[in-house]
Structure to design on (138 residues):
């Protein structure tokens, strides 16, 4: 009897990034570039967690993935940051496409109010929004 494959978070990260890029967003994963760079007037930063391989039965088959992904929506003003958040919400309003997996629709967990980042010049506005990503074997 073969063991079912353990779920991998990386294809899910790729699927989220692809959905955001398809929504005409500039997307960075894990942070923004370091050094001198000119940020666009609006963009998103994806911060994935490694996910959890969830036991789906007493047989201890761990084929379901449960992951939390934070998407920080950034803009040069409050309106642009909220515009990015709206694009993210629309992009993640349907199940992700991950080869060999069946995905639930990402669960929008919300986030705090928009904040201003005065540590950069010029200041940027940001709002982190979290999504729960779940999938199982197809």
């Amino acid at each position: 009897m073969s063991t079912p494959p353990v779920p991998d978070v990386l294809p899910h990260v790729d699927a989220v990034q692809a959905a955001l890029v398809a929504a005409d967003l500039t997307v960075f994963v894990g942070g923004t570039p370091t050094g001198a760079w000119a940020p666009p007037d609006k963009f998103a930063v994806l911060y994935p967690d490694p996910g959890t391989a969830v036991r789906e039965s007493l047989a201890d088959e761990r084929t379901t993935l449960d992951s939390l992904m934070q998407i920080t929506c950034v803009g040069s003003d409050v309106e642009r940051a909220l515009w990015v958040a709206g694009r993210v919400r629309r992009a993640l309003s349907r199940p992700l496409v991950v080869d060999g997996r069946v995905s639930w629709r990402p669960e929008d967990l919300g986030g705090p109010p928009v904040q201003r980042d005065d540590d950069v010049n010029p200041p940027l506005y940001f709002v982190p929004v979290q999504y729960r990503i779940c999938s199982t074997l197809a």
